[in-house]
Amino acid sequence: MARIIFLQRIWHEYLGPEIISANLKKHGHHVDLFIGRDTRSFLDKIQPKDIIAFSTMTGEHHWALEVAKGIKNKKDVMSIFGGPHPTFFPDIIKHPAVDIICRGEGEFSMLDLANACDKGNDYINIPNLSVKRGSDIKRNDVRPLIGDLNEIPFPDRELYYAKYRIIKESYLKPFMASRGCPFLCSFCFNEKLRTIYANKGQYVRFYSPLNLINQIKEVLSKYRFKSIYFMDDLFALNQKWLEEFAALYKKEIKMPFVCSSHVNALNEDIIRILKDAGCRVVSFGIETGNERLRNQLLNKHITNGQIEEIARLFKKYKLKFITFNMIGFPGETVSDALETIELNIRMGTPYPRCSFVTPYPGTEIAKRYKDKLIMKDIGSIDQQTRLSFEVKEPEKLYNLHYFFQTAILFPYLLRPIKKLVGFRPNILFKLWWIVVYFFIITRSETRNFFHTLIIAHRTFSFSLKEKDRG
User: Fold this and answer.
1) Percent of the chain with pLDDT over 90
2) 8: buried, middle or exposed (CB in 10 Å: 19+, 13-18, 0-12)?
3) Alpha helices (H) along 98-208
4) 3-139 homologous superfamily
5) Helix (H) or strand (E) run with residue 465 in it
6) In degrees to the nearest 10, what's the CA dihedral of 98, 101, 106, 110?
7) Segment 262-292, tens digit of pLDDT
8) Residue from 375, 433, 366 nearest 399 by CA
9) The domain over range 171-447 is classified in CATH as 3.40.50.720
């Protein structure tokens, strides 16, 4: 029996480790997960010969590397890094703290690794894995995509719930209906992932409606919660699948849910189906009110007219929506960014969100405007609240970011906000942004206020302590 220990610092329930854990436990292996701040948080929980696993996003990989290094200095363990960052930046394996990386889907590669370790067999040729032996690295190709998601065991919720009561008692539980996104936005890694999996099977796949309903029923039978968050890239994508799922959901579950979609995937029938099934909120990206930026730079292929029509349909069916917006494009001015606010005002957006453009390395937008970057290390935990590109009025854009949501929720304040933008950024503006942002997050995702506050405090206190040490 192999022992695999997942380590993370964000107080959040991730389905990736849960699904991998379920598959490993099904075949007799031991899996555990711990949340902590630094190496010292984990040392007494790790045994010699354990496999320590990190599912890492870009930016979060710095913390994971530091922790892995500290543990390996004290314990005889193997480290494996999976998730988005190693998938898109496989050279992370060259770091001394990394023994193996897993690119792409990890369920069966992790199982093959655990089986090999348990039996004392070599694992150097396992698909999806890159394995380091001294100065040599064996890089294996990815295996075909999992064609039938119904083959995968239900997520192992006890991985978190057994020891983290604050996560177990969340009113909002995450589920996933699908994998893959058919769109190719320039700020997203989807295009690169599709290249990695070229000729490796169907890219966009759904669980069967019945399988997903059974997943939800199993969690309902064991834990208390009040709403569901479908974490898919695009939940409302396939109308035929959605019709079948909605009919079962309305009959078997009868619980409010939050989901995502894309303007080009939405129509009146889908919106009606979502509302009838119990959907409370749908999120979608408009990114910017400037059609040239949205379509030429971001590759969204959506007009303002389409966006406003979808907003009208949401209002017709009394279904609330979240819009994702960005400011801080290369060379952007306050006047340019105000177009995004004005579009949201025309739409009557109930839950606007706004971040600064985050050009993750390897994405099309990062490659196209690399000479305009002012940040060398993209992807830190607070990256979405910081400028990445050169702009003409940086202080004014910071202030506009602080008042972005306020201007949309209270349009009559837009005129005084335009004047406030001219002041120097200050702590009061930032505190106001935090209050409004927190209000929107809890309301839009039907989260419990105090529960969300505790989770946010724990996560960001970790980050602040690390900054203080630096």
Assistant:
1) 76
2) buried
3) 107-119, 158-161, 165-168, 190-196
4) Cobalamin-binding domain (3.40.50.280)
5) helix 449-469
6) -60
7) 999 999 999 999 999 999 999 999 999 999 9
8) 433
9) no
